[in-house]
Amino acid sequence: MAAQHKGSMCVPGMWWPAGVIVSLGFWPLAATAGDTLGPDTGIAWDLTPAQITSTCRDALTQARVHIHEIDARVGSPVSFAGLAAIEEVSADLTERLIAPTQLMLIAPDKAVRDAASQCSDEYAAFGVELSSDTAVYALAKAATATAVTPEESQLAKIYLENGRRAGAGLDSATRARVTSLLKAINTLQIAYARALAEDTPTIRLTPEERSGLPAALNSAERDDGHGVVISVNESTIGPFLENEISGAARRRFLTAYDRRGGAANVKRMADTVALRQQVARLLGYSDWATYQLDVKMAKTPARAQALVMQVHRELLPRALTELKVLEDLKRASGDTSPLQRWDYYYYEHQLEKARYDVDDEQVREYFPVDKALPAMLDLYAHLLGVRFELLQPVIAWAPQVIEYAIYDSASSEPLGWFFLDLYPRTGKFEHFMSAGLRSGRNLADGGYRLPVASIIGNWPLPETGKPSLLSHDDLVTFFHEFGHVMHATLSRTRFASLYGPNTRLDFIEAPSQMLENWMWQPAVLKRISSRVGSGEPLPDELIQRIIALRHVADGMYYVRQAFLARFDLKLHTGSGKTDPDVLWFSLWRQMVPLTPISNTYPAAAFGHLMGGGYDAGYYGYLWSRVFAQDMFSVFQGNGLDSTAVGSRYRQEILVPGGAVEPDILLHRFLGRDVSFLPFYEDLGITRR
To answer: Which of 88, 95, 209, 481 is catalytic?
Structure first.
């Protein structure tokens, strides 16, 4: 689905406030130039459910004891050191609970996932407690007056924002109510995520329906004695809907896909939204959207919605034109029925093959994972001045996981690690996401904690004896997500609360969205392609046809993105009593020119709004795209493989993380104020 992709919709990892180490039994991990990193990151992944439970309980108990000890000193003269001590406790707790929480989404064993889910709930509750702690809030206030460096001032600012938003400045009764509500929200979000991960629907196919499907789906099928059963998930939806000739089968598949999570998850979302609205009002905000955007670049829901609706107005005519072309194509095939949602990807794919002569299955032959993956990593290494070293044996959570160490290419200084978990398995998180596992930070002994990041993905499983074959869409997704990994490992800050992706949420996607552009460059596609068997690169003519597809489906893509962003914003304004299903279908009919599928629950799988951190923030994908294309214009003006610009990008955008506000980062890198012009030019829109 290359023409419809337009950018990854990732879910960043959990980045709770963290800091410098205290004595909770976790050995420092630091390295200097010349050191060599082995596969042991210091994270124990082979935990039993009982070990997860006991580690979680002990770590949280010790952290609360240390917080209480620090709180008890608030009455005496205070300085920034008091806040730094809180940051230390939070950092060490975060590190001790990396595996006990992250295993919720990635562990092969369900009992482990369940134990990790419970730990995640308890850990989130601690985060609420810490933010609403009046003594910590007082420390943050004192720190604003005693901070010496800009980074110390930024840390105090973030803690003040968190405290204010968690009710630390309220009277005790109201504060207790807010804390209780926030804990209830976290519990609902975790239950929503687990329900979605555990829901593994399938549909049965007749031999005729199965006959035209690509080999990439073989590993997702089984014969149950009554026919072929195929899994309905993130890794199968693209290849299936693009290639399944039977409209009835496509409808069954998409219906099953849109029913994941079910009515129970819709109710969890509705309950969560109602609780969020209560929190917002108790804190003095009119609604949750106003509360959330108060600490983002957009600042107000009105500004966010203005961009969303402007994009919708500009792209809706193009979407209607695109659909007319597909309707004509369907009619030409002999089917005179109206174009339906389950038809869209099939006929879009037929258009790609007919008009542009691009067949995803043909393209896949040029991108075997064993060639494409190292080639994409080489691009990053060259651009950002780093070196990646494949590690063996891997110390991770599943046998399929790949592990790398990162070094600075000039100094050989070790910079961190990352894991790649790229193929689906039962119970695993179904989307593509970058997950921050450990933030970098200063250590009490003068060393530096090295970061760890990961990509959790769902590429098509390889056939026996063959490599997995990647579509161009797969390449774009990976290149985007790996941009997050670089943000999560190449940053360098004193405090983990300000590290890497711990920045304003409506900026966090911009660095990775900017990097997607490389996967649309002819020289790059030539460089990373290697046909199975012969090793020949993509032919120039095919490259040009692929690139010609980039904006073919811009209309429908951006109309749907605008719909999702507006759904999110409207859901989180008003009374908080909105039924997500009713709103979804009502807005869909207003904004998306395709009839929705009845008796489905699309909101039940919109995980961005339920623990993904994008509640009242999904507009950030459009908002940050503006910054992404403006940053890319700097590379365009200096050469896309310019190591000089790559070094500037690393130093001025990635390294500061959240220690510097995004507006300042952008101005430093661009050398001017942000311009919307590159964004609209990329879409072929002339501003009036």
So the answer is: 481
